[in-house]
Design brief:
The complex is a heterodimer of chains A (271) and B (253). Chain A has 271 residues and is mostly helical. Chain A has helices spanning 2-42, 51-63, 71-102, 104-118, 126-133, 137-161, 165-173, 178-214, 221-230, 234-262. By secondary structure, chain B is α/β, with parallel strands linked by helices. The longest helix of chain B has 17 residues, at 171-187. In chain B, β1 and β2 (22-35) form a beta hairpin. Classes of the chains: A mainly alpha (271), B alpha/beta (253). At the A-B interface, α7 and α8 of A face β6 and α3 of B.
Chain lengths: 271, 253
């Protein structure tokens, strides 16, 4: 009677070791990076701020807000732009992607123009947008929108136009109307592709907002970096970059979690 | 029900395709009729055009010539009275078992309560109670095919087409499912047209077997199978029939 218990605990022990290894590995790389960071910043005449400098810069930030905003306030200013732009980009991008993915005529009509516009990097729009709309809140959101909508449209279109024939046959057998086929079959089957687009658009939006802010913003993390550069404040630049990385990682995890909740079947595909 | 009533008739059905700028025949002049509540098996070697024939009955393809009559009236395109169990399952991975089974009823615009009541009945019939909320990827091959059968039954078609439904199952599961399909057919009498390339499976299930030739398909022979059910695959009568059909079957390319 004892044996199975021992076998099981052996298996459990192994699983635990593997889990532990996977938990330790990121800690190892992070410690190595920090050690490297200390080393790089400790050499004489180095312009590289040490972790301690960053911490002190953070404390200073708490005392002296920049342009009336705390660090969190600046992060939130950037995030707000991204969220507004993403909301609009997802709504329009998914609708437009479904249109050109489902309707061949619409694709022939709009596809070529879209492909051309898509090839223009979002930052190339900055001068024109600035000349048209100045440097306020709207032009920055517009730039983010341009950067965020492209991957949504492309992925949605591909997902919708690649729906398996066999699922369409099922719809036909049950005499589904074209509208039912679209909403019951094509769109759900494209959801994982659409979500891939949403993930890409989120990270693209986060990158573009920083660039847009660096070019003429008055708040936001991108603005902080420009401010740091202008005033020779290395620690502020690096502190902002760390925040960008952390928020970016958080956004990536959030979109993956959202996908798991909305489409639980994409965890493992059935044949 | 009058078992001698003709349910479905195929009249001189032919199908051809254009392959490399040449007309290639897939199905040549097939005519047969299916009786009400009959278990009809269409048997033919691999890639002979069986699926093409079934797709035409289902309305997924239009024959180049010939007519298909359901209850004496010609049908064109897909018809709600004809359901289908697909070879490759074709369960929708984004729907649960319940979602898949009630799909046809949803398309018909039935309200949620009616849908779930009817679907539950067929989920129970195929023995999947307790798995209503599971997704297809959580099920075994045999269970998935049960979902496919329940889905086809739930929209209460008069005729069920089954395109090599057990072709991808392992041997043990396949035998079990053959018994299941007979049990379900005896509980819920419908006309079944079952396509297979397996002679033993055809003999085990069929009231009648329509033997097709190799590609392009035409009807080679029609066998009435009058063995009592449940059939024994080791029964001398069974083996004799098996030998006769086997010798008459073309080899697949």
């Amino acid at each position: 009677m004892n044996k199975p218990v021992i076998v099981q605990s052996e298996a459990e022990r192994r699983a635990k070791n593997i889990r532990r290894a996977y938990a330790i590995l990121p800690v190892i790389s992070l410690s190595l990076l920090t050690a490297l960071w200390f080393y790089a910043s400790s050499s004489k005449g180095s312009n590289f701020p040490s972790p301690l400098d960053i911490w002190n810069r953070y404390l200073l930030f708490l005392e002296k807000p920049i342009r009336g905003l705390s660090l969190l306030g600046h992060i939130w200013a950037s995030l707000k732009r991204v969220f507004i732009a993403l909301g609009v980009a997802w709504l329009i991008g998914i609708s437009f992607g479904i249109l050109i993915g489902w309707n061949k005529k619409a694709n022939a009509l709009f596809g070529p123009i879209f492909t051309a516009i898509r090839s223009v990097p979002p930052l190339a729009w900055v001068p024109l947008v600035t000349m048209w709309f100045g440097t306020g809140e709207f032009p920055q959101i517009l730039i983010v929108f341009i950067g965020a909508i492209m991957p949504v449209v492309v992925n949605t279109q591909v997902g919708i136009s690649n729906v398996y024939q066999i699922y369409l046959n099922v719809g036909k057998i049950f005499n589904a109307s074209p509208k039912q086929v679209l909403f019951e079959i094509a769109i759900p089957s494209a959801l994982d592709a659409i979500f891939a687009g949403l993930r890409t658009s989120t990270s693209a939006g986060w990158m573009v907002v920083l660039a847009a802010e660096m070019l003429g913003g008055k708040s936001g993390v991108g603005f902080l970096i420009t401010r740091g550069m202008d005033s020779g404040d290395y620690a502020l630049c690096l502190l902002s970059m760390i925040c960008i990385g952390l928020v970016g990682a958080f956004l990536a995890i959030a979109t993956i979690t959202l996908e798991r909740i909305i489409c639980p079947w994409t965890v493992k595909k059935s044949s | 029900m009058d078992s001698q009533k003709i349910k479905l008739e195929l009249e001189n059905i032919s199908q051809s395709y254009i392959v490399d700028n040449k007309v290639t025949d897939a199905v040549i002049d097939i005519s047969f009729s299916v009786k009400d509540s009959e278990f009809l098996v269409i048997l033919g070697p691999g890639r002979c055009g069986k699926t093409v024939l079934l797709n035409m009955i289902a309305g997924l393809e239009k024959p180049v010539s010939g007519r298909i009559l359901l209850n004496g009236e010609e049908i064109k395109g897909s018809d709600r009275r004809i359901g289908m169990v697909f070879q490759k399952l074709a369960l929708m991975p984004w729907k649960t078992v319940m979602g898949n089974v009630e799909f046809g009823l949803k398309i018909q615009g039935k309200d949620k309560k009616t849908r779930q009541e009817i679907s539950q009945k067929f989920i129970n019939l195929v023995g999947l109670q307790g798995f209503e909320k599971s997704y297809p990827h959580q099920l075994s091959g045999g269970m998935k095919q049960r979902v496919g059968i329940a889905r086809a039954y739930a929209s209460s078609p008069e005729i069920l087409l089954m395109d090599e439904p057990f072709g991808q199952l392992d041997a043990q599961t396949r035998y079990a499912m053959q018994n299941e399909i007979l049990r379900i057919w005896e509980t819920e009498k419908r006309t079944i047209i079952f396509v297979t390339n397996n002679i033993e499976e055809a003999l085990y299930l069929a009231d009648r077997i329509i033997l097709l030739s190799k590609f392009p398909a035409h009807v080679k022979e029609i066998y009435e199978i009058n063995l009592p059910r449940p059939r024994d695959t080791m029964d001398p009568e069974f083996l004799k029939l098996r030998k006769i059909i086997s010798e008459n079957t073309d080899l697949a390319l």
